[in-house]
Amino acid sequence: MGWTKAAVASLMAIAMMGCSYAEKLVYRVDINQGNYIEEKAVDALKFGMTKEQVKFLLGPPMLVESGYPNTWYFVQWQQPGHEAPTQKDLVLSFDNNNQLMNMDGDFEPGEQFFEAVQ
């Protein structure tokens, strides 16, 4: 009777390990939420751009707080298949004349950020 318990336990262990490997064989769709932030669009941002120009480059922001309309939040959340999710944030600040003054978050300003807007 001892060998039957060992055989059942080993079969259970193999079956449980097989489920974890079989999960990797099942296709999982990539999940993308929020803004799609392209690095080249962020590099094209320049100090002094208007809100309309920024919206043309990046699209509408994910969040504009009602008490702070001059701060725009762009959030990109992705979970590719079986991998861990990643999130990238971009926060843009405008002055009272609707001109871009600062950018913060996971993206660095481009080399031409402080060049004159034409």
Defining traits:
alpha+beta, five-stranded antiparallel sheet, 118 residues, 25% strand, 31% helix, rod-shaped
The amount of beta strand, in percent, is 25-35%
Largest sheet, in brief, is: 5 strands, antiparallel
Distance between the termini: 86 Å
Extract low-pLDDT stretches.
Answer: none
Overall pLDDT: 88
Order of helices and strands: HEHHEEEE
Which SSEs are present, and which pair or pack?
Layout: H1 2-25, E1 31-34, H2 39-43, H3 51-58, E2 63-64, E3 71-79, E4 86-94, E5 100-105
Antiparallel strand pairs: 1-3, 2-3, 3-4, 4-5
Describe the structure.
- The protein has 118 residues and is α+β, with helices and mostly antiparallel strands.
- The chain is 31% helix and 25% strand.
- The chain has three helices and five strands.
- The protein has helices at residues 2-25, 39-43, 51-58; strands spanning 31-34, 63-64, 71-79, 86-94, 100-105.
- Strands 1, 2, 3, 4 and 5 form a five-stranded antiparallel beta sheet that branches.
- A hairpin with a 6-residue loop joins strand 3 (71-79) and strand 4.
- It is rod-shaped.
- The termini are far apart.
- The mean pLDDT is 88.
